[in-house]
């Protein structure tokens, strides 16, 4: 294990995952820890919060944040599947891999390899061994489950039969110096039956497609070490010694219900050690509000406080660790972060 710890933020859309994950990352940075924040969530929020631009996606961005005069440093990656694939391809000296149009399509943000490549990126970063903690902001709701399933899909994809095919094709590649080997590959390595099938396919799709397809399979084969290496994460992410899970929700009945539903669907991940982070709580502000005794406003205050307490109490049978974060009454995102960093420093070291 090189990263000492992972922290994973999950939850349904709009509850504050990205905001809380960012504030958490900064609160750890304030303790002199070296932190990497990765967001798989394609939403723009992190870019707004930390002033990153789109061109920087897929790269490690070194970010500074002014925390009351103290400069906090943080590395941030906005997940970009194409860049991750390119990175692992370059490790095996394949630089023009994205000229293959099938791989180009597969590595688009919604191209099907997004989740798998996020896991690969995570493992890549673990191998670099640069950080004390890697914080992951996952896509909303069930997409975060796709992310986890993808680890299992790597295993299915590279099960022995696939490895056999890849090994066979791969051997032929090593003896081949030209990159444009697709057509010859068909003639050289593919069995009679498959050849016939590919022949039909090429009538429908054109020969170039079949060449591209075989080339894509071979390229993926040649990066298989990076994919299979990521399998290690399956165990690590389920181990409370190495990974903290945060289920983020906001303090509304329907959001809490959605959160509990997510927990049910991923019960093997949310162990007793995991946290529920209840965001946008109003009680702190309400307690500082002093309406006249006996007024309607006082009634309202009491009602709102009671309702929020009830909502939170309902969580106790599902989570041992309940963290509350206040609704920040400001439109300035810098102030949001400052206040939420302070909350993190109070609720969790
Ligand atoms: N504690 C908070 N107080 C006030 N607004 C918040 C708070 N947390 C998040 N928000 C706001 O809620 C919206 C959704 O937050 P975001 O972090 O993008 O959620 P998610 O990543 O879960 O979709 C944003 O507009 C953000 O400014
Ligand atoms: Mg988000």
Q: Which labels suit this protein?
A:
2 domains; 52% helix; Rossmann fold; binds adenosine-5'-diphosphate; 8-stranded mixed sheet
- What is the CATH C level class of the largest domain, in words? Alpha Beta
Arithmetic mean of pLDDT: 84
Strand order of the largest sheet: 3-4-2-5-1-6-7-8
Q: Please estimate the helix content.
A: 40-55%
Which kinds of small molecule does this entry bind, naming each only once? adenosine-5'-diphosphate, magnesium ion
In total, how many beta strands?
8
CATH topology of the largest domain: Rossmann fold
> What is the second-level CATH architecture of the largest domain?
3-Layer(aba) Sandwich
User: Could you say which structural class the secondary elements and strand pairing correspond to?
Assistant: alpha/beta
Judging from the principal axes of the Cα atoms, what is the shape? elongated
CATH homologous superfamily annotation of the largest domain:
P-loop containing nucleotide triphosphate hydrolases
Uncertain segments are: 175-183
What does this structure look like?
The protein has 349 residues and is α/β, with parallel strands linked by helices. The protein folds into two domains: 5-154 and 230-347, 3-Layer(aba) Sandwich (Rossmann fold), CATH 3.40.50; 158-228, no CATH class. Helices cover 52% and strands 15% of the residues. It contains 16 helices and eight strands. It has helices spanning 17-29, 45-50, 81-91, 101-106, 114-128, 142-157, 160-174, 182-189, 192-205, 207-222, 224-229, 232-236, 253-265, 283-287, 296-313, 333-347; strands spanning 5-11, 35-39, 61-67, 70-78, 133-137, 243-250, 275-281, 321-326. The radius of gyration is 24 Å and the shape is elongated. Residues 175-183 have low confidence and may be disordered. The protein binds adenosine-5'-diphosphate (ADP) and magnesium ion. Residues 17-18, 41, 43, 45 line the site of magnesium ion (MG).
